Structure formats: structure tokens, C-alpha cells
Amino acid sequence: ILNQNLFDLSGKVNVSFEFFPPNSAEMEKTLWNSVKRLEGLSPKFVSVTYGANNSTRERTHRIISRIQQETDLVAVPHLTCIGASREELVEIAQEYWNSGIRHIVALRGDLPDSDKVGQQADMYALDLVKLLKSVADFEISVAAYPEIHPEAPNPQFDLINLKRKVDAGASRAISQFFFDTETYLRYRDRCLASGIDVEIVPGILPVTNFKQLLRFSKMTNVTVPGWMHRLYQGLDEDATTRNLIAANVAIEQVKVLAKEGVRDFHFYTLNRSDLTYAICHSLGVREKAFEPQAIAV
Ligand code: FAD
């Protein structure tokens, strides 16, 4: 059913890539190699995550500036509001606008102790969307959770939260990663039925480190299906096979999504290019020189 020939997606798919600020010289090198390689795929934008403490904040700014200076990519910083004052956020937003940034991923950020159920935040992503829009007419993307955000009391509450963020000016939602594609598709339907009329861009995570995924999925309330446990079984010490499996799983996922009409994909690259490049390739996303019309068959 998923035969590539069933539908030709070349030129019809938009991709975006997410990076994070590296914390060593070696990882910095890996990041820039990845940025340069993935630039060839002409993504709609590339985004850089934002950490909760001051040093990672500075690194986000630095990487965003370097992307602006050294590439033709649209650089999109993530910004979180938890623990920050309104004055500080206004200042950051103004600086970004003055340096040519027109699109921000607006997030709340995690509570300092995310285990504390019932803890109240002083600011939510909705407040940040409003604040950014009051500073300038930024394009704003926000987060969405097909399997419900861990702190939300129920799915309806979470959906209303997303609707409010969109009504306040967000023009795109990027989803938490997921593996059960049906869950995403049902969520997309529920968003539509609730009057949320922006793209719910699926966040695709190629899983190369299954052990780490298990830890992370608990914190983020993401289900890791039994078939994934079976697929990665016995591969703890075999990174090469894990990479091949990761590419295969993600390629299947994006193809099913594409068949269901999804045309925008956001990749959690983890600062690596190889898997994301391969998955994009399978979606018909090519470098200009390799686009089908540029090749005489
Ligand atoms: P919100 O939309 O504010 O929602 C947070 C929770 O609060 C939800 O459960 C919501 O239902 C609930 N809520 C909303 N309003 C209220 C209210 N008034 N009263 C009570 N509860 C309420 N984290 C980072 O630190 N840096 C990043 O760069 C980063 N990038 C991300 C990118 C994507 C695409 C995604 C999906 C997540 C990212 N995160 C990042 C993680 C994110 O910060 C956390 O998931 C965080 O816990 C919630 O952020 P949010 O913007 O979804 O918050």
C-alpha cells in the first residue's frame, strides 16, 4: 500500500528541522555539519530550542545569529516564558525583531519540578503568544500534544488551551513526537472539530537511542507501542542496526501521514542529519539539483 509510486509528493511537502544548542566543541561541529547538509533540502524554517537556564539561553541566541549570518535558512528561535519576567521577554522579543527574526516558537517551558502535580505556573504559553503579538507581528508556532500534555487535567482542557493559543495569534502548532499514527490522526480530527484551523504539524522523532526514549517518553506522556519494544529488542549495543531501524520506522510513519494528507513535517533532528535526510528523501524532498524535473530520465 505504501509503495512510493502510489503518489508523487515531490515539490508538495514542506519540512522544518529542529536543533538544540550543543554543549561541547565536538557537538558544535556535528550541529554545523548537519545544518549545512540539511540546508540543501530547502526547509521552510529551522528552529533552535531554548533552555531554562541562562547559559543555554545565550547559546540559542548565538546559534540563531550564526544561522542567519552563514546560511540562507529562516532561523526560528524557541522561547519559553516560565521563570522569566515580562520585561525580560519583551526585551528578548524586541531584540529578535530588530535582528530580523519574524517567527518564534512560543512555549511555556517545563515546571522546575515537573513531578509536582497541581503546581501553578505564573505564565503559560498563551500569555507568551499575547506578549509577543503585543511587541510585533511575529509569526508564531506553538506546541500541541496528540497524547495530552502531562499536566492537563483532561483532553478537552488541553484542546481548549491549544485553541486559545491559536485564537491569540499562533498560526501553526507543532506536535509532540508520537509513534501511534492513529493517535495523531484522531487528534487532528478533534482539533478540526473544535475549530482549530491551523496546521497541526507532526513532530517526527527518528529513534536511535531507544533506552533514552523510554525515559523521555515517561516524562512527556508519549506511548511507546509494544511493536517498538520488540523492534529494538537486543539492539542496545548495536547502534548501526538501531539507525537502520530508526530510519525505517520514521519512513513508514511519514508515508502513512502523507497518505492521510499531511504535507508539513517537523523533524526533531537531535542535531544529526543522516536519518532526517533519508526520511526527507523518501518523501520526495530533494536538493535542487536532484529534483525529478532537473534529471533527464
Ligand atoms: P502550555 O500551552 O502553557 O500548556 C502547559 C500545560 O498547562 C498544559 O497541560 C495545559 O493544558 C495547561 N494549562 C494551560 N493554561 C492553563 C491554566 N491557565 N491553568 C492551568 N493549566 C493550564 N521546552 C523547552 O524548555 N524549550 C524548548 O525549546 C521546547 N521546545 C518544544 C517544542 C515543541 C514542538 C514541543 C511540543 C515542546 C517543546 N518544549 C520545549 C517542551 C514544553 O516547554 C513543555 O511541554 C511544557 O511543559 C509545556 O509547554 P507548552 O508551551 O505546551 O505550555
TrEMBL record:
<keyword id="KW-0285">Flavoprotein</keyword>
<dbReference type="InterPro" id="IPR029041">
    <property type="entry name" value="FAD-linked_oxidoreductase-like"/>
</dbReference>
<dbReference type="InterPro" id="IPR003171">
    <property type="entry name" value="Mehydrof_redctse-like"/>
</dbReference>
<dbReference type="GO" id="GO:0009086">
    <property type="term" value="P:methionine biosynthetic process"/>
</dbReference>
<keyword id="KW-0486">Methionine biosynthesis</keyword>
<protein>
    <recommendedName>
        <fullName>Methylenetetrahydrofolate reductase</fullName>
        <ecNumber>1.5.1.54</ecNumber>
    </recommendedName>
</protein>
<keyword id="KW-0028">Amino-acid biosynthesis</keyword>
<dbReference type="InterPro" id="IPR004620">
    <property type="entry name" value="MTHF_reductase_bac"/>
</dbReference>
<dbReference type="GO" id="GO:0071949">
    <property type="term" value="F:FAD binding"/>
</dbReference>
<dbReference type="GO" id="GO:0106312">
    <property type="term" value="F:methylenetetrahydrofolate reductase (NADH) activity"/>
</dbReference>
<keyword id="KW-0560">Oxidoreductase</keyword>
<keyword id="KW-0520">NAD</keyword>
<dbReference type="GO" id="GO:0005829">
    <property type="term" value="C:cytosol"/>
</dbReference>
<comment type="pathway">
    <text>One-carbon metabolism; tetrahydrofolate interconversion.</text>
</comment>
<comment type="similarity">
    <text>Belongs to the methylenetetrahydrofolate reductase family.</text>
</comment>
<keyword id="KW-0274">FAD</keyword>
<dbReference type="GO" id="GO:0035999">
    <property type="term" value="P:tetrahydrofolate interconversion"/>
</dbReference>
<comment type="pathway">
    <text>Amino-acid biosynthesis; L-methionine biosynthesis via de novo pathway.</text>
</comment>
<dbReference type="Pfam" id="PF02219">
    <property type="entry name" value="MTHFR"/>
</dbReference>
